[in-house]
Amino acid sequence: MAAIEKDIVPLRPTGNMERFNIIRNHVKFYNNVQVSATYTIPRSALPSPDLASFTHLIHSALRETLQSQPILNVVIEDEGTPQPKWKRAETIDFRELVNVTEHDPKSNPDAWLTEGHKEQLDRVDEIPVWRVRIGVQASALSATSTTLSFVLAFYGHHAIADGVSCGVFHKTFLDAMNNVVAKPSSITTSPLFRPSSSLKLLPSLEEVAPLPISIWFAIKQIIKAFFYNPVDPKNWSGPPVASSLPTITPNLRTFSLGPAQVTWLLQKCRENGTTLTALISVLTARKITEMHPSYSHVAGVIPFSFRKFSGHSSRAMGVFVSSVTPYFASERNPPRGYISCASTSADEPNQTNNELWESARQTRHFITAGSASPKNQMVGMLRFAPDFKGFFLGLFGKKRDHAFEVSNIGVVDGGLGGSEGKASFDKVVFSTGLCVYGDPFSVLVASAEGGELTVSVSWMSEVTEEKEGVALCQYLEEWMSGLAEERR
Q1: Mean pLDDT, rounded, for 281-305
Q2: 426: which residues sit within 8 A by CB, 6+ positions away?
Q3: If you write DSSP's letter for every residue of 196-223 in order, what string do you get?
Q4: 123: left (phi over 0), alpha (psi -120 to 50) or beta
Q5: So where does this one cross the membrane (predicted)?
Q6: Which of 185, 254, 335, 465 has its CA 20 to 30 A from that of 375?
Q7: Which alpha helices (H) appear in 213-351, and where do they start and end?
Protein backbone atom coordinates (compact mmCIF):
# COMPACT_ATOMS: atom_id res chain seq x y z
CA MET A 1 0.00 0.00 0.00
CA ALA A 2 2.81 2.43 0.85
CA ALA A 3 4.38 1.89 -2.56
CA ILE A 4 1.09 2.56 -4.31
CA GLU A 5 0.49 5.77 -2.34
CA LYS A 6 4.02 6.94 -3.17
CA ASP A 7 3.19 6.76 -6.90
CA ILE A 8 0.19 9.07 -6.55
CA VAL A 9 0.98 12.55 -7.85
CA PRO A 10 -0.64 15.28 -5.72
CA LEU A 11 -2.79 17.71 -7.67
CA ARG A 12 -1.86 21.39 -7.77
CA PRO A 13 -3.93 23.98 -5.87
CA THR A 14 -6.80 25.72 -7.61
CA GLY A 15 -5.95 29.02 -9.30
CA ASN A 16 -7.73 32.32 -8.65
CA MET A 17 -9.83 32.12 -11.81
CA GLU A 18 -10.73 28.52 -11.02
CA ARG A 19 -11.76 29.38 -7.44
CA PHE A 20 -13.82 32.31 -8.72
CA ASN A 21 -15.79 29.97 -10.96
CA ILE A 22 -16.04 27.15 -8.43
CA ILE A 23 -17.58 29.42 -5.81
CA ARG A 24 -19.78 31.12 -8.41
CA ASN A 25 -21.33 27.75 -9.22
CA HIS A 26 -21.53 26.85 -5.55
CA VAL A 27 -23.79 29.84 -4.77
CA LYS A 28 -25.84 28.91 -7.89
CA PHE A 29 -24.93 32.09 -9.76
CA TYR A 30 -23.73 30.19 -12.83
CA ASN A 31 -24.15 26.77 -14.39
CA ASN A 32 -22.33 25.79 -17.56
CA VAL A 33 -20.82 26.68 -20.92
CA GLN A 34 -21.38 24.51 -23.99
CA VAL A 35 -20.03 23.68 -27.42
CA SER A 36 -21.74 21.11 -29.62
CA ALA A 37 -20.71 19.59 -32.94
CA THR A 38 -22.48 17.39 -35.48
CA TYR A 39 -20.40 14.27 -36.11
CA THR A 40 -20.32 11.88 -39.03
CA ILE A 41 -18.68 8.51 -38.51
CA PRO A 42 -18.36 5.43 -40.74
CA ARG A 43 -21.09 2.94 -39.95
CA SER A 44 -18.44 0.23 -39.91
CA ALA A 45 -17.32 1.66 -36.56
CA LEU A 46 -20.42 0.14 -34.93
CA PRO A 47 -20.00 -3.53 -33.97
CA SER A 48 -23.76 -3.90 -34.33
CA PRO A 49 -26.58 -1.53 -35.38
CA ASP A 50 -28.10 -0.83 -31.99
CA LEU A 51 -28.05 1.74 -29.19
CA ALA A 52 -25.91 -0.40 -26.89
CA SER A 53 -23.09 -0.67 -29.45
CA PHE A 54 -23.30 3.05 -30.17
CA THR A 55 -23.06 3.84 -26.45
CA HIS A 56 -20.04 1.54 -26.06
CA LEU A 57 -18.37 3.37 -28.95
CA ILE A 58 -18.96 6.76 -27.31
CA HIS A 59 -17.71 5.56 -23.92
CA SER A 60 -14.56 4.12 -25.52
CA ALA A 61 -13.77 7.41 -27.28
CA LEU A 62 -14.39 9.29 -24.04
CA ARG A 63 -12.03 6.98 -22.20
CA GLU A 64 -9.20 7.99 -24.52
CA THR A 65 -10.26 11.66 -24.39
CA LEU A 66 -9.91 11.68 -20.60
CA GLN A 67 -6.42 10.23 -20.85
CA SER A 68 -5.46 13.26 -22.96
CA GLN A 69 -7.23 15.96 -20.91
CA PRO A 70 -6.35 15.75 -17.18
CA ILE A 71 -8.87 18.40 -16.04
CA LEU A 72 -11.75 16.11 -17.09
CA ASN A 73 -10.70 13.58 -14.44
CA VAL A 74 -11.11 15.72 -11.33
CA VAL A 75 -13.82 16.44 -8.79
CA ILE A 76 -14.03 19.41 -6.43
CA GLU A 77 -13.38 19.06 -2.71
CA ASP A 78 -14.47 21.73 -0.18
CA GLU A 79 -16.46 23.54 -2.87
CA GLY A 80 -18.07 26.04 -0.52
CA THR A 81 -14.88 27.10 1.27
CA PRO A 82 -12.50 29.95 0.34
CA GLN A 83 -9.95 27.34 -0.75
CA PRO A 84 -11.66 24.62 -2.80
CA LYS A 85 -9.39 21.83 -4.00
CA TRP A 86 -9.01 19.60 -7.02
CA LYS A 87 -9.26 15.92 -6.23
CA ARG A 88 -8.59 13.01 -8.57
CA ALA A 89 -11.77 11.01 -9.19
CA GLU A 90 -11.23 7.43 -8.10
CA THR A 91 -13.61 5.94 -10.67
CA ILE A 92 -15.63 7.70 -13.35
CA ASP A 93 -18.91 6.17 -14.43
CA PHE A 94 -19.84 7.45 -17.88
CA ARG A 95 -23.47 6.53 -17.24
CA GLU A 96 -23.63 9.46 -14.81
CA LEU A 97 -22.10 11.92 -17.26
CA VAL A 98 -23.41 10.89 -20.70
CA ASN A 99 -27.01 11.19 -21.79
CA VAL A 100 -27.99 9.70 -25.17
CA THR A 101 -31.29 11.08 -26.44
CA GLU A 102 -33.53 10.70 -29.49
CA HIS A 103 -32.78 13.76 -31.59
CA ASP A 104 -32.37 14.48 -35.30
CA PRO A 105 -28.90 16.03 -35.80
CA LYS A 106 -30.23 17.98 -38.80
CA SER A 107 -33.05 19.62 -36.85
CA ASN A 108 -32.96 22.97 -35.08
CA PRO A 109 -30.76 22.51 -31.98
CA ASP A 110 -32.11 25.35 -29.82
CA ALA A 111 -34.58 23.50 -27.56
CA TRP A 112 -32.35 20.42 -27.34
CA LEU A 113 -29.29 22.43 -26.27
CA THR A 114 -31.36 24.45 -23.80
CA GLU A 115 -32.36 21.26 -21.99
CA GLY A 116 -28.70 20.56 -21.32
CA HIS A 117 -28.16 24.07 -19.95
CA LYS A 118 -30.89 23.42 -17.39
CA GLU A 119 -29.08 20.41 -15.92
CA GLN A 120 -27.16 21.36 -12.79
CA LEU A 121 -23.49 20.50 -12.43
CA ASP A 122 -23.99 19.18 -8.93
CA ARG A 123 -22.42 16.40 -6.81
CA VAL A 124 -19.12 18.08 -7.60
CA ASP A 125 -17.30 16.14 -4.89
CA GLU A 126 -18.46 12.81 -6.36
CA ILE A 127 -18.42 13.12 -10.16
CA PRO A 128 -16.51 15.35 -12.61
CA VAL A 129 -17.99 18.74 -13.46
CA TRP A 130 -18.89 18.16 -17.10
CA ARG A 131 -21.68 16.45 -19.00
CA VAL A 132 -22.05 15.09 -22.51
CA ARG A 133 -25.42 15.12 -24.24
CA ILE A 134 -25.74 13.12 -27.45
CA GLY A 135 -28.57 13.30 -29.95
CA VAL A 136 -29.02 10.45 -32.40
CA GLN A 137 -31.98 8.87 -34.19
CA ALA A 138 -32.65 5.27 -33.28
CA SER A 139 -33.80 4.64 -36.85
CA ALA A 140 -30.44 5.88 -38.15
CA LEU A 141 -28.56 3.25 -36.14
CA SER A 142 -30.07 0.46 -38.21
CA ALA A 143 -30.14 2.28 -41.55
CA THR A 144 -28.19 0.99 -44.55
CA SER A 145 -26.20 4.17 -45.28
CA THR A 146 -22.42 4.04 -45.07
CA THR A 147 -22.23 6.76 -42.43
CA LEU A 148 -23.97 7.68 -39.17
CA SER A 149 -24.57 11.21 -37.90
CA PHE A 150 -25.11 12.39 -34.35
CA VAL A 151 -24.72 15.64 -32.41
CA LEU A 152 -22.57 15.74 -29.28
CA ALA A 153 -22.82 18.66 -26.85
CA PHE A 154 -20.14 19.13 -24.20
CA TYR A 155 -21.27 21.12 -21.14
CA GLY A 156 -18.45 22.21 -18.87
CA HIS A 157 -18.10 23.92 -15.50
CA HIS A 158 -16.34 27.24 -16.15
CA ALA A 159 -13.60 26.27 -13.69
CA ILE A 160 -12.42 23.50 -16.02
CA ALA A 161 -13.19 25.01 -19.43
CA ASP A 162 -13.63 28.31 -21.21
CA GLY A 163 -15.31 28.49 -24.62
CA VAL A 164 -12.12 27.71 -26.55
CA SER A 165 -11.51 24.71 -24.28
CA CYS A 166 -14.97 23.35 -25.03
CA GLY A 167 -13.95 23.42 -28.68
CA VAL A 168 -10.69 21.68 -27.73
CA PHE A 169 -12.76 18.91 -26.15
CA HIS A 170 -14.25 18.17 -29.57
CA LYS A 171 -10.88 18.12 -31.30
CA THR A 172 -9.59 15.71 -28.65
CA PHE A 173 -12.73 13.56 -28.85
CA LEU A 174 -12.47 13.47 -32.65
CA ASP A 175 -8.90 12.16 -32.46
CA ALA A 176 -10.01 9.57 -29.93
CA MET A 177 -12.98 8.53 -32.07
CA ASN A 178 -10.75 8.05 -35.10
CA ASN A 179 -8.36 5.93 -33.04
CA VAL A 180 -11.29 3.75 -31.98
CA VAL A 181 -12.60 3.58 -35.55
CA ALA A 182 -9.15 2.44 -36.73
CA LYS A 183 -8.95 -0.17 -33.99
CA PRO A 184 -12.41 -1.63 -33.24
CA SER A 185 -10.88 -4.08 -30.78
CA SER A 186 -10.33 -1.13 -28.42
CA ILE A 187 -14.09 -0.76 -27.90
CA THR A 188 -15.00 -1.80 -24.38
CA THR A 189 -18.40 -2.54 -22.91
CA SER A 190 -17.49 -1.21 -19.46
CA PRO A 191 -18.85 2.26 -18.60
CA LEU A 192 -16.25 2.68 -15.85
CA PHE A 193 -12.93 4.50 -16.12
CA ARG A 194 -10.24 4.81 -13.47
CA PRO A 195 -7.95 7.85 -13.89
CA SER A 196 -4.24 7.22 -13.63
CA SER A 197 -2.66 7.93 -10.26
CA SER A 198 0.09 9.78 -12.15
CA LEU A 199 -2.44 12.27 -13.52
CA LYS A 200 -0.92 15.75 -13.44
CA LEU A 201 -2.95 18.88 -14.10
CA LEU A 202 -1.71 21.55 -16.45
CA PRO A 203 -0.64 24.69 -14.58
CA SER A 204 -3.33 27.25 -13.86
CA LEU A 205 -3.34 30.57 -15.70
CA GLU A 206 -1.90 32.39 -12.67
CA GLU A 207 0.97 29.92 -12.31
CA VAL A 208 2.41 30.65 -15.73
CA ALA A 209 1.03 33.98 -16.95
CA PRO A 210 2.48 37.34 -15.94
CA LEU A 211 -0.36 39.38 -14.45
CA PRO A 212 1.18 42.71 -13.41
CA ILE A 213 -1.22 45.25 -11.89
CA SER A 214 -0.33 48.91 -11.48
CA ILE A 215 -1.21 50.44 -8.13
CA TRP A 216 -3.52 53.05 -9.64
CA PHE A 217 -5.41 50.46 -11.66
CA ALA A 218 -5.82 48.31 -8.55
CA ILE A 219 -7.06 51.21 -6.43
CA LYS A 220 -9.54 52.25 -9.12
CA GLN A 221 -10.99 48.75 -9.48
CA ILE A 222 -11.21 48.16 -5.72
CA ILE A 223 -13.06 51.45 -5.22
CA LYS A 224 -15.50 50.56 -8.01
CA ALA A 225 -16.10 47.05 -6.70
CA PHE A 226 -16.45 47.76 -2.99
CA PHE A 227 -16.96 51.47 -2.32
CA TYR A 228 -18.19 53.79 -5.04
CA ASN A 229 -19.19 53.17 -8.64
CA PRO A 230 -21.25 56.07 -10.07
CA VAL A 231 -24.23 55.05 -12.19
CA ASP A 232 -24.59 56.51 -15.69
CA PRO A 233 -28.32 57.32 -16.05
CA LYS A 234 -28.01 56.98 -19.83
CA ASN A 235 -26.60 53.47 -19.59
CA TRP A 236 -28.93 50.48 -20.16
CA SER A 237 -27.97 47.10 -18.71
CA GLY A 238 -31.37 45.59 -18.05
CA PRO A 239 -33.13 45.27 -14.72
CA PRO A 240 -31.08 45.09 -11.51
CA VAL A 241 -29.90 41.74 -10.24
CA ALA A 242 -32.74 40.06 -8.33
CA SER A 243 -32.85 40.69 -4.58
CA SER A 244 -32.76 36.94 -3.89
CA LEU A 245 -31.74 33.85 -5.81
CA PRO A 246 -34.15 33.46 -8.75
CA THR A 247 -35.01 30.40 -10.80
CA ILE A 248 -33.17 30.90 -14.07
CA THR A 249 -34.97 30.05 -17.31
CA PRO A 250 -32.44 30.03 -20.15
CA ASN A 251 -33.47 30.77 -23.72
CA LEU A 252 -31.50 30.14 -26.89
CA ARG A 253 -31.91 31.07 -30.55
CA THR A 254 -29.37 30.25 -33.25
CA PHE A 255 -28.78 30.87 -36.92
CA SER A 256 -26.08 29.72 -39.30
CA LEU A 257 -24.30 31.05 -42.37
CA GLY A 258 -23.05 28.68 -45.04
CA PRO A 259 -19.38 28.39 -46.07
CA ALA A 260 -19.75 30.74 -49.06
CA GLN A 261 -21.50 33.39 -46.94
CA VAL A 262 -18.81 33.11 -44.27
CA THR A 263 -16.07 33.58 -46.87
CA TRP A 264 -17.69 36.73 -48.26
CA LEU A 265 -18.45 38.19 -44.83
CA LEU A 266 -14.90 37.68 -43.60
CA GLN A 267 -13.61 39.25 -46.81
CA LYS A 268 -15.82 42.29 -46.20
CA CYS A 269 -14.41 42.57 -42.68
CA ARG A 270 -10.83 42.41 -43.97
CA GLU A 271 -11.54 44.97 -46.68
CA ASN A 272 -12.87 47.33 -44.04
CA GLY A 273 -10.02 46.80 -41.59
CA THR A 274 -11.98 45.06 -38.88
CA THR A 275 -13.01 41.65 -37.52
CA LEU A 276 -16.21 39.67 -37.29
CA THR A 277 -16.26 39.97 -33.49
CA ALA A 278 -16.02 43.76 -33.69
CA LEU A 279 -18.74 43.93 -36.34
CA ILE A 280 -21.13 41.78 -34.31
CA SER A 281 -20.44 43.88 -31.21
CA VAL A 282 -21.45 47.10 -32.98
CA LEU A 283 -24.56 45.51 -34.49
CA THR A 284 -25.58 44.16 -31.08
CA ALA A 285 -25.11 47.55 -29.39
CA ARG A 286 -27.04 49.26 -32.19
CA LYS A 287 -30.03 46.93 -31.89
CA ILE A 288 -30.15 47.18 -28.09
CA THR A 289 -30.18 50.98 -28.17
CA GLU A 290 -32.92 50.83 -30.82
CA MET A 291 -35.01 48.60 -28.55
CA HIS A 292 -34.40 50.94 -25.58
CA PRO A 293 -34.49 54.44 -27.11
CA SER A 294 -34.71 56.21 -23.74
CA TYR A 295 -31.12 55.09 -23.11
CA SER A 296 -28.19 56.05 -25.33
CA HIS A 297 -25.28 54.15 -23.74
CA VAL A 298 -24.52 50.44 -23.43
CA ALA A 299 -21.45 48.53 -22.30
CA GLY A 300 -20.36 45.23 -23.78
CA VAL A 301 -17.91 42.62 -22.62
CA ILE A 302 -15.71 40.72 -25.07
CA PRO A 303 -13.71 37.75 -23.73
CA PHE A 304 -10.40 36.86 -25.36
CA SER A 305 -8.04 33.93 -24.98
CA PHE A 306 -5.12 34.47 -22.59
CA ARG A 307 -3.15 31.57 -24.06
CA LYS A 308 -0.78 33.91 -25.90
CA PHE A 309 0.43 35.11 -22.48
CA SER A 310 0.08 31.89 -20.48
CA GLY A 311 1.77 29.67 -23.05
CA HIS A 312 -0.94 27.01 -22.87
CA SER A 313 -1.15 25.13 -26.14
CA SER A 314 -4.06 25.22 -28.56
CA ARG A 315 -4.98 21.70 -27.39
CA ALA A 316 -5.03 22.47 -23.65
CA MET A 317 -8.26 22.41 -21.68
CA GLY A 318 -8.75 24.80 -18.78
CA VAL A 319 -9.89 28.36 -18.12
CA PHE A 320 -7.43 30.76 -19.75
CA VAL A 321 -9.41 33.89 -20.53
CA SER A 322 -9.71 37.61 -19.84
CA SER A 323 -11.95 40.29 -21.34
CA VAL A 324 -12.25 43.88 -22.51
CA THR A 325 -15.22 46.22 -22.04
CA PRO A 326 -16.04 48.63 -24.89
CA TYR A 327 -18.65 51.35 -24.35
CA PHE A 328 -21.09 52.28 -27.11
CA ALA A 329 -23.31 55.31 -27.61
CA SER A 330 -26.21 55.82 -30.00
CA GLU A 331 -25.21 59.47 -30.54
CA ARG A 332 -23.55 60.44 -33.82
CA ASN A 333 -20.89 62.30 -31.85
CA PRO A 334 -20.40 60.09 -28.79
CA PRO A 335 -18.73 61.21 -25.55
CA ARG A 336 -15.04 60.60 -25.08
CA GLY A 337 -14.32 56.93 -24.55
CA TYR A 338 -17.45 55.74 -26.39
CA ILE A 339 -17.84 54.18 -29.84
CA SER A 340 -20.81 55.28 -31.90
CA CYS A 341 -23.40 52.62 -32.70
CA ALA A 342 -25.82 55.14 -34.21
CA SER A 343 -28.21 53.93 -36.87
CA THR A 344 -28.33 55.98 -40.04
CA SER A 345 -31.58 57.84 -40.63
CA ALA A 346 -33.86 56.87 -43.50
CA ASP A 347 -32.86 59.89 -45.59
CA GLU A 348 -29.17 58.91 -45.51
CA PRO A 349 -29.21 55.25 -46.58
CA ASN A 350 -25.84 55.43 -48.35
CA GLN A 351 -24.08 56.29 -45.10
CA THR A 352 -25.37 53.23 -43.23
CA ASN A 353 -22.52 50.84 -44.00
CA ASN A 354 -19.81 53.51 -43.90
CA GLU A 355 -20.72 54.42 -40.33
CA LEU A 356 -21.08 50.76 -39.37
CA TRP A 357 -17.65 49.84 -40.71
CA GLU A 358 -16.03 52.87 -39.06
CA SER A 359 -17.50 51.86 -35.69
CA ALA A 360 -16.38 48.27 -36.27
CA ARG A 361 -12.84 49.51 -36.98
CA GLN A 362 -12.83 51.50 -33.75
CA THR A 363 -14.08 48.46 -31.86
CA ARG A 364 -11.37 46.29 -33.37
CA HIS A 365 -8.70 48.82 -32.30
CA PHE A 366 -10.17 48.86 -28.78
CA ILE A 367 -10.10 45.06 -28.55
CA THR A 368 -6.57 44.90 -29.95
CA ALA A 369 -5.28 47.50 -27.49
CA GLY A 370 -7.03 45.93 -24.50
CA SER A 371 -5.72 42.44 -25.28
CA ALA A 372 -2.18 43.41 -26.29
CA SER A 373 -0.60 43.09 -22.85
CA PRO A 374 -1.11 40.99 -19.71
CA LYS A 375 -0.78 44.15 -17.61
CA ASN A 376 -3.83 45.55 -15.80
CA GLN A 377 -6.16 42.73 -16.82
CA MET A 378 -9.23 42.10 -14.69
CA VAL A 379 -8.20 38.46 -14.30
CA GLY A 380 -5.13 39.77 -12.46
CA MET A 381 -7.36 41.58 -9.96
CA LEU A 382 -8.80 38.30 -8.63
CA ARG A 383 -5.86 37.90 -6.25
CA PHE A 384 -7.02 41.00 -4.38
CA ALA A 385 -10.55 39.69 -3.75
CA PRO A 386 -10.68 38.56 -0.10
CA ASP A 387 -14.02 36.75 -0.28
CA PHE A 388 -15.49 35.50 -3.57
CA LYS A 389 -18.64 34.22 -1.91
CA GLY A 390 -19.26 37.56 -0.23
CA PHE A 391 -18.63 39.32 -3.53
CA PHE A 392 -21.31 37.31 -5.33
CA LEU A 393 -23.89 37.57 -2.57
CA GLY A 394 -23.24 41.31 -2.47
CA LEU A 395 -24.49 41.61 -6.05
CA PHE A 396 -28.14 41.05 -5.10
CA GLY A 397 -30.19 44.09 -6.06
CA LYS A 398 -27.34 45.87 -7.85
CA LYS A 399 -27.17 47.23 -11.38
CA ARG A 400 -25.71 44.87 -13.98
CA ASP A 401 -22.35 45.82 -15.44
CA HIS A 402 -23.03 45.22 -19.13
CA ALA A 403 -25.85 45.02 -21.64
CA PHE A 404 -24.31 42.20 -23.65
CA GLU A 405 -21.43 39.82 -24.22
CA VAL A 406 -19.95 38.87 -27.58
CA SER A 407 -17.66 35.86 -27.51
CA ASN A 408 -16.14 34.24 -30.60
CA ILE A 409 -14.14 31.03 -30.21
CA GLY A 410 -13.17 31.10 -33.88
CA VAL A 411 -12.75 28.12 -36.16
CA VAL A 412 -12.81 24.56 -34.79
CA ASP A 413 -11.25 22.03 -37.14
CA GLY A 414 -13.53 19.02 -37.42
CA GLY A 415 -11.52 17.16 -40.04
CA LEU A 416 -13.87 17.96 -42.93
CA GLY A 417 -12.33 17.04 -46.24
CA GLY A 418 -10.19 14.35 -44.65
CA SER A 419 -9.82 10.73 -45.67
CA GLU A 420 -12.87 8.59 -46.28
CA GLY A 421 -13.63 6.17 -43.52
CA LYS A 422 -12.69 8.66 -40.80
CA ALA A 423 -14.86 10.57 -38.34
CA SER A 424 -15.41 14.31 -38.78
CA PHE A 425 -17.68 17.05 -37.48
CA ASP A 426 -19.29 20.29 -38.61
CA LYS A 427 -22.07 22.65 -37.40
CA VAL A 428 -20.36 23.86 -34.21
CA VAL A 429 -22.64 25.70 -31.75
CA PHE A 430 -21.31 27.71 -28.78
CA SER A 431 -23.78 28.70 -26.06
CA THR A 432 -24.03 29.48 -22.36
CA GLY A 433 -26.47 28.86 -19.55
CA LEU A 434 -25.94 32.44 -18.40
CA CYS A 435 -25.80 33.53 -14.77
CA VAL A 436 -27.83 35.31 -12.10
CA TYR A 437 -26.00 38.63 -12.41
CA GLY A 438 -25.22 38.16 -16.10
CA ASP A 439 -25.73 40.36 -19.11
CA PRO A 440 -29.24 40.58 -20.62
CA PHE A 441 -27.90 39.20 -23.92
CA SER A 442 -25.08 36.82 -24.79
CA VAL A 443 -24.02 36.50 -28.43
CA LEU A 444 -21.69 33.55 -28.96
CA VAL A 445 -20.02 32.61 -32.23
CA ALA A 446 -18.30 29.46 -33.50
CA SER A 447 -17.31 28.10 -36.90
CA ALA A 448 -16.45 24.68 -38.25
CA GLU A 449 -13.43 24.56 -40.54
CA GLY A 450 -14.85 24.39 -44.06
CA GLY A 451 -18.39 24.35 -42.69
CA GLU A 452 -20.97 26.69 -41.22
CA LEU A 453 -20.63 29.65 -38.89
CA THR A 454 -23.26 29.61 -36.14
CA VAL A 455 -24.35 32.51 -33.94
CA SER A 456 -26.28 31.83 -30.74
CA VAL A 457 -28.22 34.47 -28.83
CA SER A 458 -28.98 33.60 -25.19
CA TRP A 459 -31.04 35.38 -22.58
CA MET A 460 -32.91 34.71 -19.32
CA SER A 461 -36.69 35.03 -19.11
CA GLU A 462 -36.31 36.71 -15.72
CA VAL A 463 -34.18 39.49 -17.24
CA THR A 464 -35.05 39.87 -20.92
CA GLU A 465 -38.33 39.66 -22.81
CA GLU A 466 -38.49 36.90 -25.40
CA LYS A 467 -39.46 39.32 -28.15
CA GLU A 468 -36.22 41.23 -27.60
CA GLY A 469 -34.05 38.10 -27.71
CA VAL A 470 -35.76 36.96 -30.89
CA ALA A 471 -35.51 40.44 -32.42
CA LEU A 472 -31.76 40.64 -31.73
CA CYS A 473 -31.18 37.22 -33.28
CA GLN A 474 -33.18 38.14 -36.38
CA TYR A 475 -31.41 41.50 -36.66
CA LEU A 476 -27.96 39.92 -36.56
CA GLU A 477 -28.94 37.28 -39.10
CA GLU A 478 -30.38 39.86 -41.51
CA TRP A 479 -27.36 42.15 -41.28
CA MET A 480 -24.73 39.43 -41.45
CA SER A 481 -26.46 37.67 -44.34
CA GLY A 482 -26.98 40.98 -46.12
CA LEU A 483 -23.36 42.05 -45.78
CA ALA A 484 -22.20 38.62 -46.93
CA GLU A 485 -24.27 38.95 -50.10
CA GLU A 486 -22.90 42.38 -51.01
CA ARG A 487 -20.58 42.43 -54.00
CA ARG A 488 -18.04 45.10 -54.82
Answers
A1: 97
A2: 37, 38, 40, 414, 416, 448, 450, 451, 452
A3: -TT--PPPPHHHHS-----HHHHHHHHH
A4: left
A5: none
A6: 335
A7: 215-226, 259-271, 276-291, 307-310
